[in-house]
Structure formats: structure tokens, C-alpha cells
Amino acid sequence: MQHATITRSTQASRIAGILALCFLVYIGAAPWWAGSADLRLITEILFYLALASMWNLLAGYAGLISVGQHAYVGLGGYLMFSCVLFLGMNPLWSIPVAGVAGALISIPVAWLVFRLKGPYFAIGTWVVAEVFRLSAAQMSSVGGGSGLSIPVAVMRDLGRKPDREMLIYFTAFALCVGAILLVYFLLRSRVGLALTAIRDNEVASSSLGVKIGRIKLFVYVAAAAVTTMIGALIFVTKLRISPDAAFSVNDWTVFVIFIVVIGGIGTIEGPIIGTLLFFLLREFLADLGAIYLMILGAMAIGIMLAAPKGLWGLLVSRYDFSIFPVGYRVRR
């Protein structure tokens, strides 16, 4: 008689997990082997990977197609500047404060936009982001439409430039890894089961007792908090902020959606693959100007037609392979 066992991982996924852990250690040690320019590039990659993971959590699992997540990136930047200029806080210490404030602000925002469904929800999130941008442009205390810069003396408090870059890098690394682990452990929990049910069939999951509204609110607030912290750190590196830069839909939403779509929406590995491919294309094609954006658009359309679940989804469908196993498998 053949016995069946229930497991989450396979031998291939365990080997891949060990390799991924080794690569993670290698990337974590980047300040000791990478030059200044390479370190800044890796830091930017970490920013986008964290943002993509949060957008993927919203859209890929909770079904919340938001085109206004740049609202929380810009909010994080302005909260960081406010903490530094008005409260005299260390820029890095202001990041968790920005996260808490972002979570609190996202609750009334969620109450508003959750009244909208489907495409109206997406448009509503974009409108909220525009309200944030216009509000920042009217506030003279934070520079109005022209923005403002962090005083040089404040950055000197973080130490010499190499030490400062290392601190910023490790903070970005921690936020990125934390964002991925948040998604991973969330999906392995009861909340993850509820999200899977909501994604597969929202009506059926509601009839089974899943608290759809509470689950979506929790996911939205969590994504807002992490996105706000990432936004705060992004503008620590930029040293200057303005409404147009902070609430840029292209930089902080469009590119993030592109990353998730080509990598694989609804998978943890998808944003990782998408981020690496996006930066690879940017490094080789950015000099082409507008043609570069046309290539990105054509690639996104092509991948959506050929592989609706993204590149990682195509790989999984052929080889049944996963680095972050979150579901259950039956082994005989």
C-alpha cells in the first residue's frame, strides 16, 4: 500500500533555497566587495524589489489593483523630511516613524477607496495620490512646489560618506528582505489561505466565512506601511524632495507594475525576476531614450500575451518549481 505525505517543499526547492540564501549573504556583504557606484545601483534594485513585492501582495494576492502606490512613496519622503527638519530626528530613525504614520494614514484612505470596485478602485487610488501631491505642493513649510533639501549638517551626523552609504545600504537590504519575508510568512499563515481563497473566488470565499474586508484592509495597511518606509529611505539617498519627484507615477508605480507583470504576478519569485530583468534592460537600453520605453512596453505586452502569469509563472507551469513554497503538495 502506497502512503501519501503532505509537504510544502520539494528537493529542488530546498536546493534552490540554499542557493538563494548563499546569494543573499553575498548581496548582504556588498559594502565589502562593491564600489560606490555599484553599491548605489544595488541599493536602487533593493528599493524596487521591495516596492514590487508590496504591489504584488496587493494585486497578486488580495486583488487590489492599485495605480496609486506612489502616494505612499511620496508620503514617506515628506514624513522623513518633516521628522528631520521639524523634530530634529536622525534621517534613518525617522523611517520607522514614517512607517507607523503611513499605516495610520492608510486606514481612512482605505475606508474611502474600498467603496470603489474594479477599475474604479484603481482610478480612486490614483486620485488619492494626486491629492497627496497637490497637498504637498501647497505646503510652504516643506518647500511648496519647488521642494527642499536636507541640510548638509544633518547628513554629516550619519558619519563620513562611506559609512553613510553603508548604513543606507544595510537599511535598504533589511527593508527589502523584510518585505519579501513578510509576504512569505503571511502566505504561509491563515491569512495566506484566506488570500488564496479570495484570489480564486471572492464570492465563494465569502460564503465560507472568510472576512474579505478585514483581510484586504490588513494587506492594504501593511503594504502602505512598508511602502512608506521605503519611500522615506529613497529620499534619504536623494537628499532632495519635490512633489513631482516624490509622487511620480512613472518612477514608483508604472515601473513597479511592469516589474511584477513580466516577472509573474501572484508569486514571490516573480518580482525578483522582474526587478533583475528591468535593471538589466535599463543598463543596456537607457541610452536609447524614448525607444527604451517603447521596448519596455512592447516586452510587457508580448509577455502578457505569451505568458499571462509572467516569466516565473511560465517556468513553474513547465517544471513545477518554487524557491518560496507556500502551498501544500501530496507526495506518494
TrEMBL record:
What is the recorded membrane topology of this protein?
Multi-pass membrane protein
Q: Keywords, A to Z?
A: Cell membrane, Membrane, Transmembrane, Transmembrane helix
Asked if the keyword Cell membrane belongs to this entry, the reply reads yes
Q: Where in the cell is it found?
A: Cell membrane
**What are the GO MF terms of this UniProt record?**
branched-chain amino acid transmembrane transporter activity
- Top-level taxon in the UniProt lineage: Bacteria
Chief subcellular location equals: membrane
Q: Which PANTHER family match?
A: ABC TRANSPORTER ATP-BINDING PROTEIN, HIGH-AFFINITY BRANCHED-CHAIN AMINO ACID TRANSPORT SYSTEM PERMEASE
What is the protein name for this chain?
Branched-chain amino acid ABC transporter permease
